Amino acid sequence: MIASASVLLLCACLGAQENNSVSRDLALTPPMGWNSWNKFACSVSEDTIRSMADAMVKSGMKDAGYQYVNVDDCWQVSRDVSGNIVADPQRFPHGMKAVGDYIHSLGLKFGVYSDAGSKTCAGRPGGLGHEYQDAIQYAAWGVDYLKYDWCNTTTQDAKASYANMRAALDASGRAIVLSICEWGTAKPWLWGKEVGGNLWRTTGDISDKWAGQTKWPDGSCCSNGMLAILDQQVGLQSYAGPGHWNDPDMLEVGNGGMSDTEYRVHFSLWAILAAPLIAGNDLRNMRPEIRDILTNKEVIAVDQDPLGREGERVWRNGDLEVWAKQLRDGSRSVVLLNRGSAEQEVTASWEDLGYPDHVSASVHDLWQHKDLGKFNGKFSAQVASHGIVMVMVMP
Ligand code: GLA
Question: Most C-beta atoms within 10 A of its C-beta, which of 78, 269, 273, 340?
Answer without folding.
Answer: 273
